[in-house]
Amino acid sequence: MESPSRLIYTDAHCAVGLFRCKPDNPTFENTGPVRGGHMLVFPRTTVRITHEGGSPIVADPNTVMLYNEHQRYVRGKISERGDLCDWFGFGRESVSEAVRVFDPSVDTRPDQPFDLTHAPSSSSLYLTQRMIVHHILSDDYVNDSLIHEALAAILDQAIAAAYGSRPRRGSAEKAETQRAHRQLANEAKAIVAERYDHPLTLEQIAEQLYCSLFHLCRIFRQQCGITLHRYLNQMRLRTALEDLADPYQDLTALALRSGFSSHSHFSQAFRKSFGLSPSQLLGAPSQRLQEMSKNLIA
Length: 298
Description:
The chain is of the alpha+beta class and 298 residues long. It folds into three domains: 5-163, Regulatory protein AraC (Jelly Rolls, Sandwich), CATH 2.60.120.280; 175-225; 237-297, Arc Repressor Mutant, subunit A. Helices cover 46% and strands 17% of the residues. The strands form two sheets. It has a six-stranded antiparallel sheet with strand order 1-2-8-3-6-9. A three-stranded antiparallel sheet has the order 5-4-7, with no helix packed on it. Helix 4 packs across helix 6. The chain is globular, with a radius of gyration of 22 Å. Mean pLDDT is 86; it is low at 285-290.
């Protein structure tokens, strides 16, 4: 029998999958322990979930479920559609780091970083995870950096929602920690400045800075108010903007020279950022382009 779980994305840091199990499936009540990492699960139908040793939970699209790897649970039917959900798997260190902000005791239970079973799912959180799945399933080019940034964000948001409030920034952090975080963000910016015109990934930046990928994404976002992926893309796009004054510019060559994987990837990112395609600006007066670029960077 075909497994109800389908893996659609995986790398060394995370995994994304779909779970589709109808009530008439012989394994509907118990599909076995959780595999694939510590998980955030976003239900798309309503189902009753009972963690081993716990009380029943009504899991619906307004809820995000939290599962430790190897977690045992049973399922009960509510919707005739069965259990339809999307899941996101993370490594232990990534989850522990996010939980530690709210619960320092996470270090005493390394194999069970999630101490809570579920959290409310805000509209923005639900939309973000749906867009991740849509991107993976629909787009010709799967942007690893975009996925990593988005997954780091939904992990932080889900844990914050589970614990009821966001951490107070500044007062709870020691001065040396704040300095270290500022330095990490600045070092990441320096790497981007030197290598933005190469096919640079967030994973490569993290490796160069000797930190985890999700830690880098989280700290950069906190310190700079923008994701590292967006920061890198804006560096590439705003630099490429200057070259569009040349009416004979080869857009494919410009895309590759700017660090994008293809002309289509470049055009998609450009339109999303500036509201028009590169070809619509091709050959425009250089003075106008310079003014636009200056305003965007300011």
